[in-house]
Write a structure and sequence with these properties.
The protein contains three helices and six strands, in the order H-E-E-E-E-H-E-E-H. It is globular. A six-stranded antiparallel beta sheet has the order 1-2-3-4-6-5. By secondary structure, the chain is of the alpha+beta class.
């Protein structure tokens, strides 16, 4: 992953209508947070939006591509992130609509997690 701070600034401006977001470096790229949840990744000039069974088909239909990477053994792994559709690159309103769907996916994933049991100190 590679992250360009100028690209991060563009993302912040493009998604300004979402309200406060935070961009943090992660593994050479960056993660984009809203209300403490990651809803996008930034890598090599691409915005990768979090997706699940609800919004992934919609992203795919809009021409987005799934984030994949090669493993050491030559296989290709797919992650639950899809590229921001091309039409949203020049349209902040559309980009924000896509981002909101990704925030919803992040909320659904967080809600589905089993709560951790508190650690009991002896």
């Amino acid at each position: 992953m590679a992250y360009d701070p100028d690209f991060g600034e563009w993302v912040g401006e493009h998604f300004a209508a979402l309200g406060p977001i935070e961009i943090r470096r992660m593994f050479g790229g960056a993660a984009v947070y809203s209300h403490g949840l990651i809803f996008a990744l930034l890598d090599d000039g691409v915005v990768w939006l979090k997706a699940d069974e609800v919004n992934a088909p919609v992203l795919q239909a809009a021409g987005a591509r799934q984030f994949t990477y090669p493993t050491k053994d030559g296989q290709v792994m797919a992650m639950a992130y899809w590229s921001l559709p091309e039409s949203a690159l020049d349209d902040p309103d559309e980009a924000v609509d896509w981002a909101r769907q990704s925030i919803d996916a992040a909320l659904r994933k967080a809600a589905a997690k089993k709560p951790r049991k508190p650690k009991i100190k002896p």
